[in-house]
Amino acid sequence: MLEGVMMRSPTSFAVVVRRRDGSLHVREKGMPDGRTGAAKLPLVRGVASLVESLKLGGEALRFSAEQMERDFDEQEKEEAAKASSAAKKTGIGAGALRMLQAIAYTLFLLISADDGGEPAGSSGEVIEPVASPNDAQPEKEKASKGPMGLMLVVMVVFLIALPQAAAAGMNKLLKFGLEVQSPGFQAMTGAFKLTIVIGYLFVIRRFLPDIRRVFQYHGAEHKTISTYEANEPLTVANARAKTTLHPRCGTTFLVMVALVSILVFTAVGGFLPKIQTGKVLLDNVIFFAEKLPFLPLIAAVTFEIQRVFARYCTTGPLRVLLWPGFLCQKITTIEPDDEQLEVALASLRVTLFREEGIEKSVVPAVTAAGQAPAPADVRYRSFDVLMKSARLRRAA
C-alpha cells in the first residue's frame, strides 16, 4: 500500500489512504464470508486465502496509487528528481532501483454502492461523494489480475528458481558433485532461499525510502490489530503503546514458507523422477518444473502451521517458535507516527462497521448475481470526523 492501509474482515474489505491535504479517502465493499463451504476446510482455506490476498492486495495497491497520482504536483516532481539523484549516489542505478521498487510493491501486497449515509456535504463529514465506477468494473477486474500474476511469478522466482540456480552454481564452483535431487543439494538450496528472502528485505528497506514508509504503515497495521484484539478502544494512544510485531504477519508467513519448503524438498527430492539429460542446466530446469506443483501445498501447510502457532504459541516457552518470524518483522515493520496510526485505525473502523450489522440491508455482502457489490468511495476531512461519523456509529 502507498500511504494507506488495507483491512479484511469476514464480510468486509476496506482501504484507507491519506491524501496530501490530510483527508482520508476510503473504499469499502462487502465480501462473501470465507468461513463457509469448502473455503473453511484445512489446507483448502490456506490456498483460498492466499489467492484472495493477492487479488485484494493488487486492488488496494492500484487504488492507493490512483490517489497519489491525483495529489502529485510540480513540487513532488522536484522532490522525486532529488530522490532519484540521491539514489544515484548510493551506487544503485535508476533502472535497478525501479525494478526493486516494482518487486517490493508487488510483494507487499491482496462498482457503485450506496454508503448508507447522508448525501455528500450535508453534514460537513464528506469532501467527495460516493464514486460510481460501474462502467469501468470489467476493466478494473481485468487490471487486478496483473498484480496477482506478477506476485505469483515473484514468489516462484524468489522461492524456487533463484535459490536452485544459486545452489547449482555453488555445486559446480566448489565441485561438490551433488545430484539435483539429493538432500544435500536441497539443503544448500534452502540456505540460499533464506539468504535471498532476508537479503531482499534488507535491500529494499535500505535503498527505497517509499518502502520504509510502507513498513511504517505495516507497523501501524499490527499495532491497530493488537489494540482491537486487546478489546481496547481504537485510539491513537492505545495503538501507540502496542508492539509492531504480530504472529499472523505476512512476513512470518513468507519466512515459514521458505522453511517448510526446505523440509519438503529435502524429504521428497530423492523420490521425484530423475530425468537426466547429461546437461546440468537442463537437469536443473526439469527438476525446477517438478517442484512447481508443490508450491500450493507448501503454502497451504504453512498457513495451517501459522494458525496453530498464532493460537497456542503466543505465551510461555512455545513463544520461541515465533521468533524467526519476529526477527524478520524487525525488518519489515518500522515504528509509525501518529498520522499513520490514524490511517490504520480508520481502516479497521471502516471494516468493522459491516460486522456490527450496519447497512447489511442496504449493501449486501453478495449481490443476487453472486458477485460482491461495487466498492463505495468516500473522502473524510480528518481522522476525527471519520471516527465520529454517523455512517460508522456502531463500530467501536
UniProtKB/TrEMBL annotation:
It comes from the Bacteria. Residues 120-143 are annotated as: Disordered. Keywords: Membrane, Transmembrane, Transmembrane helix. It holds the Pfam family DUF1385. The chain crosses the membrane at residues 150-170, 190-208, 252-272, 292-310. PANTHER family: MEMBRANE PROTEIN-RELATED. This is DUF1385 domain-containing protein. It comes from Labilithrix luteola.
